[in-house]
Design goal:
Shape: globular
Largest sheet: 9 strands, mixed
CATH superfamily of the largest domain: Metal-dependent hydrolases
Helix content: 25-40%
CATH class of the largest domain: Alpha Beta
CATH architecture of the largest domain: Alpha-Beta Barrel
CATH topology of the largest domain: TIM Barrel
Number of strands: 17
Radius of gyration: 21 Å
Distance between the termini: 43 Å
Strand content: 15-25%
Number of helices: 16
Protein backbone atom coordinates (compact mmCIF):
# COMPACT_ATOMS: atom_id res chain seq x y z
CA UNK A 1 0.00 0.00 0.00
CA UNK A 2 1.88 3.05 -1.28
CA UNK A 3 1.03 6.30 0.50
CA UNK A 4 2.35 9.73 1.46
CA UNK A 5 2.78 10.83 5.09
CA UNK A 6 3.46 14.29 6.54
CA UNK A 7 4.43 13.92 10.19
CA UNK A 8 5.64 17.36 11.29
CA UNK A 9 2.94 20.01 11.51
CA UNK A 10 1.65 22.55 14.01
CA UNK A 11 -1.75 23.37 15.47
CA UNK A 12 -3.46 26.71 16.03
CA UNK A 13 -1.72 26.83 19.40
CA UNK A 14 1.76 27.24 17.93
CA UNK A 15 3.14 30.70 17.40
CA UNK A 16 2.83 32.07 13.84
CA UNK A 17 0.22 29.44 13.00
CA UNK A 18 -3.02 30.06 11.15
CA UNK A 19 -6.08 30.28 13.39
CA UNK A 20 -7.81 27.88 10.99
CA UNK A 21 -5.28 25.15 11.74
CA UNK A 22 -7.72 22.77 13.40
CA UNK A 23 -8.11 19.02 12.96
CA UNK A 24 -10.90 19.34 10.42
CA UNK A 25 -8.92 21.74 8.21
CA UNK A 26 -5.84 19.55 8.47
CA UNK A 27 -7.86 16.55 7.28
CA UNK A 28 -9.47 18.51 4.43
CA UNK A 29 -6.11 19.74 3.18
CA UNK A 30 -4.46 16.36 3.64
CA UNK A 31 -7.04 14.94 1.26
CA UNK A 32 -6.53 17.78 -1.22
CA UNK A 33 -2.80 17.14 -1.16
CA UNK A 34 -3.04 13.35 -1.37
CA UNK A 35 -1.73 12.51 2.11
CA UNK A 36 -2.92 9.36 3.84
CA UNK A 37 -1.26 9.97 7.23
CA UNK A 38 -0.52 13.26 8.99
CA UNK A 39 0.48 14.21 12.50
CA UNK A 40 -1.65 16.03 15.03
CA UNK A 41 1.22 18.24 16.12
CA UNK A 42 1.36 19.98 19.51
CA UNK A 43 -0.22 17.27 21.68
CA UNK A 44 1.51 18.65 24.79
CA UNK A 45 -0.63 21.80 24.68
CA UNK A 46 -3.59 21.30 27.08
CA UNK A 47 -6.29 22.82 24.87
CA UNK A 48 -5.10 21.00 21.74
CA UNK A 49 -4.82 17.72 23.62
CA UNK A 50 -8.44 18.08 24.73
CA UNK A 51 -9.46 18.78 21.13
CA UNK A 52 -7.57 15.67 19.97
CA UNK A 53 -9.38 13.53 22.55
CA UNK A 54 -12.73 15.08 21.63
CA UNK A 55 -12.52 14.86 17.83
CA UNK A 56 -10.32 11.83 17.10
CA UNK A 57 -11.01 8.16 17.68
CA UNK A 58 -8.54 5.23 17.64
CA UNK A 59 -8.38 3.51 14.25
CA UNK A 60 -6.06 0.68 15.32
CA UNK A 61 -2.29 0.19 15.52
CA UNK A 62 -1.47 3.64 16.82
CA UNK A 63 -3.37 5.84 14.37
CA UNK A 64 -6.51 7.93 14.80
CA UNK A 65 -9.19 9.36 12.56
CA UNK A 66 -11.90 11.98 12.90
CA UNK A 67 -15.14 10.93 14.55
CA UNK A 68 -17.58 9.57 11.93
CA UNK A 69 -20.04 12.44 12.42
CA UNK A 70 -17.26 14.95 11.66
CA UNK A 71 -15.58 12.94 8.92
CA UNK A 72 -18.70 12.38 6.82
CA UNK A 73 -19.40 16.11 6.67
CA UNK A 74 -15.98 17.28 5.52
CA UNK A 75 -14.17 14.60 3.50
CA UNK A 76 -15.08 14.08 -0.16
CA UNK A 77 -13.45 10.67 -0.49
CA UNK A 78 -14.25 7.44 1.32
CA UNK A 79 -10.56 7.06 2.09
CA UNK A 80 -9.92 8.30 5.64
CA UNK A 81 -7.13 10.59 6.73
CA UNK A 82 -5.20 9.01 9.58
CA UNK A 83 -3.54 10.98 12.39
CA UNK A 84 -0.47 10.14 14.46
CA UNK A 85 0.13 11.82 17.83
CA UNK A 86 3.14 14.10 17.60
CA UNK A 87 4.64 17.27 19.03
CA UNK A 88 7.73 19.35 18.32
CA UNK A 89 9.84 20.16 21.39
CA UNK A 90 12.47 22.91 21.53
CA UNK A 91 15.32 22.32 23.97
CA UNK A 92 17.70 25.14 24.91
CA UNK A 93 20.48 24.31 27.35
CA UNK A 94 24.16 24.70 28.15
CA UNK A 95 26.53 21.85 27.38
CA UNK A 96 30.30 21.88 26.98
CA UNK A 97 30.37 25.66 27.54
CA UNK A 98 28.08 26.12 24.54
CA UNK A 99 24.40 26.99 24.31
CA UNK A 100 22.56 24.23 22.47
CA UNK A 101 19.25 24.82 20.69
CA UNK A 102 17.72 21.68 19.24
CA UNK A 103 14.25 20.88 17.90
CA UNK A 104 12.86 17.35 18.11
CA UNK A 105 9.67 15.72 16.79
CA UNK A 106 8.22 13.34 19.37
CA UNK A 107 5.77 10.55 18.49
CA UNK A 108 3.44 8.58 20.77
CA UNK A 109 1.37 5.51 19.81
CA UNK A 110 -1.60 6.13 22.12
CA UNK A 111 -3.30 8.65 24.39
CA UNK A 112 -1.90 7.10 27.58
CA UNK A 113 1.71 7.37 26.38
CA UNK A 114 1.10 10.94 25.23
CA UNK A 115 -0.44 11.79 28.60
CA UNK A 116 2.53 10.26 30.45
CA UNK A 117 4.90 12.34 28.37
CA UNK A 118 2.85 15.51 28.95
CA UNK A 119 2.91 14.98 32.71
CA UNK A 120 6.66 14.41 32.75
CA UNK A 121 7.25 17.61 30.75
CA UNK A 122 4.84 19.64 32.88
CA UNK A 123 7.00 18.80 35.91
CA UNK A 124 10.03 20.24 34.06
CA UNK A 125 8.74 23.38 32.35
CA UNK A 126 5.83 25.30 30.85
CA UNK A 127 3.77 23.37 28.30
CA UNK A 128 0.78 25.72 28.39
CA UNK A 129 1.90 28.81 26.48
CA UNK A 130 2.97 27.38 23.12
CA UNK A 131 2.22 24.32 21.03
CA UNK A 132 5.97 23.89 20.63
CA UNK A 133 7.17 24.11 24.24
CA UNK A 134 10.64 25.41 25.03
CA UNK A 135 12.44 23.49 27.76
CA UNK A 136 15.83 23.79 29.43
CA UNK A 137 16.36 20.07 29.03
CA UNK A 138 19.34 18.21 27.59
CA UNK A 139 18.40 16.46 24.32
CA UNK A 140 19.64 13.17 25.73
CA UNK A 141 17.36 13.57 28.75
CA UNK A 142 14.41 14.49 26.54
CA UNK A 143 14.93 11.24 24.63
CA UNK A 144 15.05 9.34 27.90
CA UNK A 145 11.75 10.94 28.94
CA UNK A 146 10.18 9.95 25.62
CA UNK A 147 11.35 6.34 25.94
CA UNK A 148 9.98 6.14 29.49
CA UNK A 149 6.58 7.54 28.52
CA UNK A 150 5.40 4.40 26.77
CA UNK A 151 6.53 1.54 24.55
CA UNK A 152 6.73 2.61 20.92
CA UNK A 153 7.35 6.31 21.63
CA UNK A 154 10.28 7.77 19.71
CA UNK A 155 12.06 10.93 18.55
CA UNK A 156 13.11 12.16 15.14
CA UNK A 157 15.57 15.08 15.27
CA UNK A 158 13.87 17.93 13.40
CA UNK A 159 15.23 19.76 10.32
CA UNK A 160 18.73 18.74 11.34
CA UNK A 161 20.65 21.40 9.37
CA UNK A 162 18.68 24.58 10.16
CA UNK A 163 21.19 27.16 11.48
CA UNK A 164 19.44 28.19 14.68
CA UNK A 165 17.53 25.24 16.11
CA UNK A 166 18.82 21.82 15.12
CA UNK A 167 21.23 19.01 15.93
CA UNK A 168 23.75 19.85 13.21
CA UNK A 169 23.01 23.51 12.50
CA UNK A 170 25.82 26.03 12.15
CA UNK A 171 24.71 28.17 15.11
CA UNK A 172 23.37 25.74 17.65
CA UNK A 173 24.16 22.12 16.98
CA UNK A 174 26.60 19.31 17.50
CA UNK A 175 28.79 17.66 14.89
CA UNK A 176 27.02 14.29 15.08
CA UNK A 177 23.78 12.71 16.23
CA UNK A 178 25.73 10.51 18.65
CA UNK A 179 27.29 13.54 20.33
CA UNK A 180 23.85 15.01 20.98
CA UNK A 181 22.03 11.95 22.35
CA UNK A 182 25.06 10.22 23.89
CA UNK A 183 24.40 6.75 25.35
CA UNK A 184 20.81 6.76 24.04
CA UNK A 185 21.75 7.61 20.46
CA UNK A 186 21.02 4.02 19.38
CA UNK A 187 17.32 4.86 19.79
CA UNK A 188 17.50 7.43 16.98
CA UNK A 189 16.76 5.69 13.67
CA UNK A 190 15.56 8.52 11.43
CA UNK A 191 16.37 12.20 10.93
CA UNK A 192 14.46 14.98 9.19
CA UNK A 193 16.44 16.68 6.42
CA UNK A 194 14.46 19.94 6.47
CA UNK A 195 13.35 22.16 3.60
CA UNK A 196 16.83 23.56 2.91
CA UNK A 197 18.56 20.23 2.27
CA UNK A 198 17.72 17.12 0.28
CA UNK A 199 18.89 13.51 0.64
CA UNK A 200 21.72 13.87 -1.86
CA UNK A 201 23.26 16.62 0.27
CA UNK A 202 22.99 14.40 3.35
CA UNK A 203 24.68 11.51 1.54
CA UNK A 204 27.92 13.50 1.71
CA UNK A 205 28.05 12.91 5.48
CA UNK A 206 28.77 9.23 6.11
CA UNK A 207 27.76 9.34 9.78
CA UNK A 208 24.16 9.80 8.59
CA UNK A 209 24.16 6.58 6.56
CA UNK A 210 22.63 4.59 9.41
CA UNK A 211 19.54 6.80 9.60
CA UNK A 212 16.45 6.77 7.43
CA UNK A 213 15.97 10.25 5.95
CA UNK A 214 12.47 11.65 6.29
CA UNK A 215 10.89 14.81 4.92
CA UNK A 216 7.88 16.70 6.21
CA UNK A 217 6.26 20.05 5.57
CA UNK A 218 6.83 21.55 9.06
CA UNK A 219 3.59 23.35 8.18
CA UNK A 220 2.13 26.19 10.23
CA UNK A 221 -1.05 26.29 8.14
CA UNK A 222 -3.09 23.50 6.53
CA UNK A 223 -2.54 24.73 2.96
CA UNK A 224 1.23 24.25 3.40
CA UNK A 225 0.92 20.51 4.00
CA UNK A 226 2.90 18.22 1.67
CA UNK A 227 5.55 20.74 0.73
CA UNK A 228 7.57 17.69 1.67
CA UNK A 229 6.43 14.18 2.63
CA UNK A 230 7.70 10.67 3.31
CA UNK A 231 6.56 7.78 1.13
CA UNK A 232 5.74 4.35 2.58
CA UNK A 233 4.69 1.00 1.17
CA UNK A 234 3.18 -0.46 4.34
CA UNK A 235 -0.14 -0.43 6.11
CA UNK A 236 -0.91 3.19 7.07
CA UNK A 237 -0.43 2.67 10.79
CA UNK A 238 1.97 3.85 13.47
CA UNK A 239 3.86 0.62 14.09
CA UNK A 240 4.24 -0.38 10.43
CA UNK A 241 5.65 3.06 9.64
CA UNK A 242 7.97 3.01 12.66
CA UNK A 243 9.26 -0.42 11.63
CA UNK A 244 9.80 0.85 8.07
CA UNK A 245 11.95 3.67 9.41
CA UNK A 246 13.89 1.29 11.63
CA UNK A 247 14.48 -1.48 9.10
CA UNK A 248 13.86 0.02 5.67
CA UNK A 249 11.13 -2.55 4.94
CA UNK A 250 8.30 -0.48 3.54
CA UNK A 251 10.25 2.79 3.42
CA UNK A 252 10.11 4.09 -0.16
CA UNK A 253 11.63 7.57 -0.03
CA UNK A 254 10.74 11.23 0.17
CA UNK A 255 9.05 14.10 -1.61
CA UNK A 256 11.33 17.13 -1.42
CA UNK A 257 11.46 20.86 -1.87
CA UNK A 258 14.24 21.77 -4.23
CA UNK A 259 16.66 22.61 -1.39
CA UNK A 260 17.48 26.02 -2.85
CA UNK A 261 13.89 27.04 -2.09
CA UNK A 262 14.44 26.51 1.63
CA UNK A 263 14.99 29.70 3.56
CA UNK A 264 18.38 28.70 4.97
CA UNK A 265 20.03 27.04 1.98
CA UNK A 266 22.81 29.55 1.28
CA UNK A 267 24.71 31.99 3.50
CA UNK A 268 23.87 35.65 3.87
CA UNK A 269 22.18 38.55 5.61
CA UNK A 270 18.54 39.22 4.86
CA UNK A 271 18.64 42.81 6.15
CA UNK A 272 21.64 43.55 3.96
CA UNK A 273 20.15 41.75 0.94
CA UNK A 274 23.28 39.60 0.73
CA UNK A 275 23.13 35.97 -0.45
CA UNK A 276 26.39 34.05 -0.85
CA UNK A 277 27.57 30.58 -1.77
CA UNK A 278 29.92 28.78 0.63
CA UNK A 279 32.95 29.63 -1.55
CA UNK A 280 32.00 33.31 -1.58
CA UNK A 281 31.58 33.26 2.20
CA UNK A 282 35.00 31.72 2.60
CA UNK A 283 36.63 34.52 0.59
CA UNK A 284 34.99 37.03 2.93
CA UNK A 285 36.02 35.10 6.05
CA UNK A 286 32.36 34.79 6.99
CA UNK A 287 31.84 38.54 7.33
CA UNK A 288 29.02 40.46 5.66
CA UNK A 289 30.45 42.97 3.15
CA UNK A 290 27.66 45.44 3.92
CA UNK A 291 27.40 45.60 7.72
CA UNK A 292 30.65 43.94 8.77
CA UNK A 293 28.92 41.42 11.05
CA UNK A 294 29.18 37.61 10.85
CA UNK A 295 27.00 36.07 8.15
CA UNK A 296 24.29 33.52 8.89
CA UNK A 297 25.89 30.30 7.68
CA UNK A 298 23.36 28.24 5.74
CA UNK A 299 22.71 24.57 5.26
CA UNK A 300 24.81 24.04 2.11
CA UNK A 301 27.87 25.45 3.85
CA UNK A 302 27.31 23.45 7.03
CA UNK A 303 26.79 20.20 5.11
CA UNK A 304 30.03 20.83 3.22
CA UNK A 305 31.84 21.52 6.51
CA UNK A 306 30.81 18.15 7.97
CA UNK A 307 31.01 16.18 4.74
CA UNK A 308 33.59 13.45 4.36
CA UNK A 309 32.55 12.65 0.79
CA UNK A 310 33.19 15.21 -1.92
CA UNK A 311 31.91 15.41 -5.48
CA UNK A 312 29.36 12.90 -6.74
CA UNK A 313 28.25 10.40 -4.13
CA UNK A 314 26.74 6.93 -4.24
CA UNK A 315 23.47 6.65 -2.29
CA UNK A 316 23.97 4.66 0.95
CA UNK A 317 22.02 1.41 1.55
CA UNK A 318 19.49 3.31 3.69
CA UNK A 319 18.63 5.71 0.83
CA UNK A 320 15.19 5.84 -0.70
CA UNK A 321 13.68 7.28 -3.85
CA UNK A 322 13.81 11.08 -4.08
CA UNK A 323 11.14 13.18 -5.82
CA UNK A 324 11.73 16.96 -5.95
CA UNK A 325 8.62 19.08 -6.48
CA UNK A 326 7.28 22.63 -6.48
CA UNK A 327 3.87 23.15 -4.81
CA UNK A 328 1.08 23.45 -7.36
CA UNK A 329 -0.07 26.91 -6.15
CA UNK A 330 3.46 28.21 -6.79
CA UNK A 331 3.40 26.85 -10.35
CA UNK A 332 0.01 28.44 -10.99
CA UNK A 333 1.25 31.67 -9.44
CA UNK A 334 4.22 31.77 -11.81
CA UNK A 335 2.07 31.11 -14.86
CA UNK A 336 -0.71 33.53 -13.88
CA UNK A 337 1.77 36.12 -12.56
CA UNK A 338 -0.19 36.74 -9.36
CA UNK A 339 0.43 35.71 -5.74
CA UNK A 340 0.13 32.02 -4.77
CA UNK A 341 -2.55 32.92 -2.21
CA UNK A 342 -4.59 35.05 -4.62
CA UNK A 343 -8.24 34.26 -5.32
CA UNK A 344 -7.51 33.44 -8.95
CA UNK A 345 -4.81 30.90 -8.07
CA UNK A 346 -7.02 29.38 -5.38
CA UNK A 347 -9.87 28.99 -7.88
CA UNK A 348 -7.61 27.31 -10.47
CA UNK A 349 -6.15 25.04 -7.79
CA UNK A 350 -9.58 23.88 -6.65
CA UNK A 351 -10.66 23.31 -10.25
CA UNK A 352 -7.62 21.15 -10.94
CA UNK A 353 -7.88 18.92 -7.87
CA UNK A 354 -11.63 18.51 -8.40
CA UNK A 355 -11.06 17.28 -11.95
CA UNK A 356 -7.69 15.52 -11.75
CA UNK A 357 -7.33 14.39 -8.16
CA UNK A 358 -4.96 15.31 -5.31
CA UNK A 359 -2.08 17.72 -5.77
CA UNK A 360 0.69 15.15 -5.33
CA UNK A 361 -0.85 13.01 -8.06
CA UNK A 362 -1.10 15.99 -10.41
CA UNK A 363 2.56 16.82 -9.82
CA UNK A 364 3.88 13.27 -10.12
CA UNK A 365 1.65 10.93 -12.11
CA UNK A 366 -1.36 12.43 -13.90
CA UNK A 367 -0.58 12.31 -17.66
CA UNK A 368 0.43 15.72 -18.95
CA UNK A 369 -2.07 15.27 -21.76
CA UNK A 370 -4.85 15.20 -19.17
CA UNK A 371 -3.44 18.31 -17.49
CA UNK A 372 -3.38 20.12 -20.83
CA UNK A 373 -6.94 19.07 -21.58
CA UNK A 374 -8.27 20.24 -18.22
CA UNK A 375 -6.18 23.40 -17.90
CA UNK A 376 -3.64 24.57 -20.47
CA UNK A 377 -0.57 23.63 -22.52
CA UNK A 378 1.63 25.92 -20.43
CA UNK A 379 0.74 24.15 -17.17
CA UNK A 380 1.26 20.77 -18.81
CA UNK A 381 4.68 21.88 -20.03
CA UNK A 382 5.58 23.30 -16.64
CA UNK A 383 4.76 20.05 -14.86
CA UNK A 384 6.62 18.09 -17.53
CA UNK A 385 9.71 20.21 -16.85
CA UNK A 386 9.24 19.76 -13.11
CA UNK A 387 9.21 15.97 -13.43
CA UNK A 388 12.49 16.17 -15.35
CA UNK A 389 14.07 18.50 -12.78
CA UNK A 390 14.37 21.29 -15.33
CA UNK A 391 13.96 24.24 -12.98
CA UNK A 392 15.50 27.68 -12.50
CA UNK A 393 16.86 28.08 -8.97
CA UNK A 394 17.40 31.13 -6.79
CA UNK A 395 18.61 30.16 -3.33
CA UNK A 396 17.06 31.14 -0.04
CA UNK A 397 19.19 32.52 2.78
CA UNK A 398 18.98 33.85 6.36
CA UNK A 399 15.23 33.25 6.71
CA UNK A 400 14.32 34.31 3.15
CA UNK A 401 12.73 31.61 1.01
CA UNK A 402 14.35 30.89 -2.34
CA UNK A 403 12.53 30.91 -5.66
CA UNK A 404 12.12 27.98 -8.03
CA UNK A 405 10.81 28.78 -11.49
CA UNK A 406 9.85 26.65 -14.47
CA UNK A 407 9.88 29.38 -17.12
CA UNK A 408 11.83 32.47 -18.03
CA UNK A 409 9.76 35.66 -17.85
CA UNK A 410 9.58 36.13 -21.63
CA UNK A 411 8.52 32.49 -22.08
CA UNK A 412 5.33 33.00 -20.11
CA UNK A 413 4.37 36.05 -22.15
CA UNK A 414 5.04 34.30 -25.47
CA UNK A 415 3.21 31.13 -24.47
CA UNK A 416 0.19 33.10 -23.34
CA UNK A 417 0.06 34.86 -26.69
CA UNK A 418 -0.05 31.62 -28.66
Amino acid sequence: MLFYADLHIHSKYSRATSKNCNLEELAIWAQKKGLSVISTGDFTHPAWFEEIKEKLIPAGNGVFRLRPDIEKNILKSNSPVYFILSVEISTIYKKGEKTRKVHHVVFSPDIDSAQNFRQKLAAIGNINSDGRPILGLDSRNLLETVLESGEGSYIIPAHIWTPWFSVLGSKSGFDSIDECYEDLAEHIFAVETGLSSDPEMNWHVSSLDKYRLVSNSDAHSPSKLAREATVFDTEPDYFSMMNALKTGNGYVGTVEFFPEEGKYHDDGHRKCNICLTPSETKKLNGICPVCGKPLTIGVANRVYELSDRKGDVTPPPTAGKVISLVPLPEILSEIMQVGPSSKSVTAEYENLINKLGPELSILTSVPVEEIEKVHSPILAEGISRLRKGQVIRQSGYDGEYGIIKLFNEDEIVKKKLR
